[in-house]
Amino acid sequence: MRPQSIGQILIPLGALLTLMPFMSSAWSLLLGVTLALTCGNPYLARTRKFVRPLLSFSIIALGAGMNLMVVARAGISGFTFTVVSLLFTLILGWWVGRLLKTGQDTSTLINVGTAICGGSAIAAISSAIDADDNDTSVAFGIVFILNACALFIFPPIGHALNLTEAQFGLWSALAIHDTSSVVGASMQYGPHALQIGTTVKLVRALWIIPMTLVFSKIHAMRLKQAVVAKKKYPWFILGFLAAAALVTWLPQLQSAGHQIEGVGRHLLVITLFLIGTGLTRSTLKTVGLRSLAHGVILWVCVGAGSLLAIYLGLFVQ
C-alpha cells in the first residue's frame, strides 16, 4: 500500500484519536507531525483550511470559562510587557540577522514571528514587504519546529523552577511564538496559567496591525511606492472578550460557560493535530542551517531573558 493511501486512513483515525480524554495538546501535535512526515497528508489543503477557524472558535470558547476582571488585569499589565519584549526581540533579531548574514526578508519574518505571534505575524508582514514564497516558507518552518518544541519543553521547566501559574502563563505568552502553542502549553500547567497566557498573547497579537503598517511603509519607502498594506484583524479577540464578559456579568451562565470552555479545550487539541499534519518534508528541506540558527538563537534569548525577568520579579502579574 502506498504511503498516500495509508495517510488517507491514518489521518482521519488520528483526528478521532485526539477526541480521547488522554490526548494532550503536545501529544496531539506530535501525532500530527509524525503522520505528516511518515505517510504524508493527502488532505493537506482541507486541513490547512480548517486550522484558522477552529483556532478562533477554540479561543472564543475558552473565554467562556474566564473571569473578565482577571482578563482585564492581565491585558493591562500584559501591554507593558509586550511593548518591552517586542522592542527587545526586534532589535536583537536584527543584530542576530546581521551577525549570521541571514537574508533580509527571512530575518525580518523570523524576527516578527518571534516578537508578535508566530505564523499570523509572518503571514501579515510577508504580504506587507512582498517577501517571496521561499523566505515565507523558511520562517513558517522554523516557527513550526520551535512551537512543537515549546509544548514539551516549557511545562517541565516551569515545574522545575517552581513557577506559579501566573508566572508560567506570562512566560508562555512572551516566549512562545503561536497563540495555539501558548494556549496548549499553559493549559497543561493550570487554569490560571491558561487565563494569563491566553490573554497576554491575544494582547500581543493586536500588534500585528500597527507592525504591518510600519513594515509596509518602510518597504514602500525603499521602492518609492505608495503604501498598500494588507491588514489582518484578529477579530476572534473580540469574541474571547465577549464570552468572558457574559459569564462574568451573568453568573447564571457560568455553568454553561465551563462546559463551553471544555469544548474549546478539545477543539484546541484537534487544531494542534491539524497544525501538525500541515508540516511537509519540502518545508523542512527549505529551512537552512543559517536561518534555523537565527530562529533558535533569538528564541532562546527571548525565552531566557523573559524567564529571568519574571523569576526575578521584574514582571509581576
Distance between the termini: 54 Å
Say how many strands there are.
0
Number of structurally distinct domains: 1
Largest sheet: none
Which spans of ≥5 residues are poorly predicted at pLDDT below 50? none
The whole-angstrom Rg is 19 Å
Task: Assign the structural class, choosing from mainly alpha, mainly beta, alpha/beta, alpha+beta, or little secondary structure.
Answer: mainly alpha
Fraction of residues in helix: over 70%
The portion of residues forming beta strands comes to under 5%
**Helix-strand pattern:** HHHHHHHHHHHHHHH
Overall, the morphology is globular
Mean pLDDT: 82
Count of helix runs: 15
Overview of this protein structure:
With 317 residues, the chain is mainly α. It has 15 helices and no strands. Helix 4 packs across helix 10 (191-205), helix 6 runs antiparallel to helix 7 (133-160) and helix 8 (165-175) runs parallel beside helix 10 (191-205). The model has no long low-confidence stretch (mean pLDDT 82).
Give keywords:
317 residues, mainly alpha, 15 helices, 80% helix, globular
List the helices and strands and how they pair.
Blueprint: H1 3-17, H2 25-38, H3 44-63, H4 68-100, H5 104-117, H6 119-128, H7 133-160, H8 165-175, H9 179-189, H10 191-205, H11 208-223, H12 236-249, H13 254-277, H14 281-286, H15 289-311
Summarize the structure.
With 317 residues, the protein is mainly alpha-helical. It is 80% helix and 0% strand.
